[in-house]
Amino acid sequence: MSWIKKILLVLLIVFIAIQFIQPAQNKSVQVLPTDISKTITVPENVKMILQTACYDCHSNNTDYPWYNYVQPVAWILANHIKHGKRDLNFNEFGSYPVRKQQSKLKAIADQIKDGEMPLYSYTIIHYNARLSKEQKAIIIDWAQNAQDSLDKINP
Ligand code: HEC
Predict the structure, then answer these.
(1) Residue range 19-40, pLDDT digits in tens
(2) Residue closest to 57 by CA, chosen among 68, 42, 66, 67
């Protein structure tokens, strides 16, 4: 066997071996009383966009297409979910102090304006998470209006 074939064989074995190490799944369909929709107004069109483009990393319920079971994709996603939820979890938004809710809404508008979210690496595979200009405007307007309403009760 040539050395190239040996290396390929080793890589193949490693690739197969890591498939058996699957991270715990982020799956819960329970609607918590702290859900963002129970805290501030979230129109249906906004909700649809957030669910499609953000909820995989910023909620307790990730939609797992088949490739998310393939390593190392599953590990990378699990890591994004861990950090994404720590910063912002739409299912737990209502448990944040109002001050934090205000700053998160501002962060949402800023992240979308800067094109930072959804993460670029994610949109390479998840085409449907790529936001159009109109979709971006819908989220930015909503986040700013929601922040303004909170600013009125908590300046
Ligand atoms: C593939 C996973 C993933 C997706 C999808 C995703 N995010 Fe994130 N998000 C993260 C991670 C990870 C962080 C933590 C910071 C970092 O690593 O950049 C983050 C951070 C943030 C923050 C920063 C919070 C703070 O306090 O500064 C906001 C706001 C945010 N995301 C909003 C969104 C919105 C809105 C969407 C949908 C349009 C979205 N994200 C989609 C993974 C994701």
Answers:
(1) 998 999 999 888 899 999 999 9
(2) 68
